[in-house]
Design goal:
About 40% of the residues lie in helices and about 15% in strands. By secondary structure, it is an alpha/beta fold.
């Protein structure tokens, strides 16, 4: 279980509107410290100097990599914290590739779920409470679902 009451979230997305919504929601909650970046390269650079409890990234981000490439690079550098892919791309190929590369879960941004942001935040809390990748505490099938 996470000891601190504040969750450090790195959110990577090129969609400024979604960044503003996530930022407002986190401000309102007061229990999530948020860093917003728009590219995989800037996320990796920031992580070399700082830390996060969980990462949420879109598939479409700026720079030379997409969300899956960011996840792959993130894992290759030894980062073990939960990584949530939050994307409008809902193809099985992207979902499978995300799980194969160690994603905690994949959430579809275009879902008709009226409470999409609530679902994302619940998943962030759940990931920080249950995503103990450092101690290999993962389900047998290697993926978590909200």
């Amino acid at each position: 279980m996470k000891e601190s009451s504040t969750i450090s979230l790195l959110y990577v997305d090129k969609d400024l509107d979604m960044c503003m919504i996530i930022g407002a929601f986190c401000d309102r909650l007061g229990s999530i410290s948020l860093k917003i970046l728009n590219s995989g390269e800037s996320a990796l650079e920031w992580l070399s100097k700082a830390s996060a409890d969980v990462i949420v990234a879109d598939y479409d981000i700026l720079g030379g990599m997409n969300g899956i490439a960011l996840l792959r690079e993130f894992r290759s550098r030894g980062y073990t914290i939960p990584f949530i892919l939050f994307t409008a791309h809902d193809g099985c190929t992207i979902r499978e590739e995300a799980y194969r590369n160690g994603a905690f879960t994949v959430i579809n941004k275009t879902s008709s779920d009226r409470n999409l942001i609530h679902r994302l935040v619940r998943t962030i809390y759940w990931a920080t409470e249950n995503g103990d990748f450092e101690n290999n505490n993962v389900p047998q099938n290697g993926k978590y679902l909200p």
